[in-house]
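ARCHIVE CARD
Drawer: 12
Card no.: 0347
Subject: one protein chain, sequence and derived structure
Cross-reference: see card 0346
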Amino acid sequence: MNHTLVGFARACRMLFFSMMLFAFCLGTGCNLAPDYVKPSVEMPTVFKEQSADQSTNVVAWATAKPSDDVRRGNWWEVFSQPELNLLEEQISVSNQTVAAAAANFLAARAVVKQNEAALFPTVSMVPSATRMRTVALHEQSATPTHTTISDFSLPFDASWALDFWGAIRNNIRASAFQAEASQADMENIRLSMQSELAADYFQVRLLDMQRQLLDSTVLAYRDSLRLTQVRRATGIDSDQAVAQAETQLHVTQAQADDLGIARAQLEHAIALLLGKPVASFSIPTNTCPVNPPAVPGFIPSQLLERRPDIAASERLVAAANAQIGVARAAYFPTIALSGSAGFQRSSMGHLISAPDLGWSMGAALSQTIFDAGKTMAMNEQARANYQAVIANYRQTVLAAFATVENNLVALRILFQELVEQDAAVASSERYLKLANDRYMLGIDNYLDVITAQTTCLNNQRTAINLRSQQMTATIQLIAALGGGWTGLSAH
């Protein structure tokens, strides 16, 4: 038995040392992929909306360098809303879209391990047992001869495709970059879900403010209706004024009730973002005023380098570059090693014995001589894909700048608009007071009061809507910057 094991070990060592010899050649193999350099995308160091002179476009330029590994922190805390903070923390835990993206990332990482396995030999064992009975007929005898044969084998087979031209290694690099892109996609989805949650939450808060405004207006209109009814009873006013007051009251009440639809739908949207059944989730009414945080006077454009979508696009460029190396390797021959060792015997009891040990080793080389331009077409496809991914990356960077500029413009104009709208609200409130006073004195009829009431309410609702737009633009700006305006210096 000892001689048997020694012989088997000797065969395994021969096979192992032969493969290690080729492994040395493998380590010094070629890498046919081009040296990867991140695509150059020039970007201004300051946004146009925050430059000192917006009439000129003369600004300094720098090359974009993805920095998605920079910590963003809990960007939503800048709004100082404890309830929002609690909701945002649940996104990473319960949101099903984020969970699906995380699973996709794990799958991409498993593909890397799968491709790495191709660098090593594959060893398999296929034991078998066969028992066969044969029948032989003889001319001299009418009785056939029966022969029973047993065959037991315990083979070990090994094969190894050598990576002389770097095809396997470049495939590993490509899958690793794709896994990093998948991780960036996951972070991009997480950021998107977080910003959507914040936008929906503040929409609910602003709807509560609108409902409070309409409810208080309804109470005022009821007082006006009662006053008009008293004046009609005393003969001072007509039934027409009462009808006008009733119409104004019912229209405003209907507007207040209509807000309930939008609020319920936003609650349902938030429940879905949190991965909760809509029937078990609600947000308490809160009419406290909400205001967006002040945007810094200077935001370094390098903040965009933290955007996960930009990082994902850049990793895909690196993956496409590695795929060029995979395609180029097809021009060269493939070399594969194979070996086997095992035992074979007609009886199971003495299967593992030295005389029954057999082994073999070999190498094979294959080279395509003619493929009608298939390999050349594959190389052209790899290079074209690389150029397409570079264009997508540059477009992603340009789109990111456009999104930031759009929201900066929106915030600047909304601020000016709100100043004017607040002044309009103050004027309309004064106009309503004067209209009521003149109506009480009998100078004007009730139609003037209704006109003043409608003007005042419309201006108040417009002011709330503008604040809603301002809050949404702030959230979109934070998301466009990759998660807030802190984390990088201006240099």
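Annotation on reverse: The longest helix spans residues 167-233. The radius of gyration is 39 Å.
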